[in-house]
Amino acid sequence: MKADMQKQPVTLKLSPFESAITGDRAYEAGTSAIKLPDGRTVNEKYLVVYRRVGNEWKIAYDIWNSDAAAPPDK
After folding, report:
1. How far apart (Å, rounded) are the C-alpha atoms in residues 68 and 74?
2. Per-residue pLDDT at 4 exceeds 90
3. How confident is the model over 20-35, as a mean pLDDT?
4. What residues does 45 pair with on adjacent strands?
5. How far apart are the first and last CA of the chain?
6. DSSP secondary structure letters along 32-59
7. Which domains are seen in the chain, by residue range?
8. Does 70 have pLDDT greater than 80?
9. How far is CA 24 from the centre of its chain?
10. Number of H helices, E strands in the chain
């Protein structure tokens, strides 16, 4: 993803709306808006689950979904 963003720079805005830590697990849920080079904006929602490894937080799961309608069946 980093390489793709370097080829075609985009503007990414993350808007977390909920997060919590319980023991060695944590999560963050939110929305994102990605402005593409052609001017279009892609709106998505995301959820990231972290786990503590020693003194560091590592991403255990990361999922995002577009808010756009699914394409029609072919």
Report:
1. 18
2. no
3. 96
4. 31, 65
5. 28
6. EEEE-TTS-EEEEEEEEEEEEETTEEEE
7. 2-66 (3.10.450.50)
8. no
9. 21
10. 1, 4
pLDDT over threshold 90, residue 19 = yes
Token pair listed for 6: 């370097």
Q: Tell me, what's the pLDDT at 9?
A: 76
Residues 6+ apart with CB under 8 A from 51: 24, 25, 26, 57, 58, 60
pLDDT in tens, 53-69: 999 999 999 999 988 87
The dihedral region occupied by 54, where left means phi > 0, alpha psi between -120 and 50, and beta the remainder, is: left
Encoding tokens for residue 45? 């929602």
19: number of CA atoms within 13 Å, CB side? 11
Q: Which of 48, 59, 55 is nearest to 19 (CA)?
A: 48
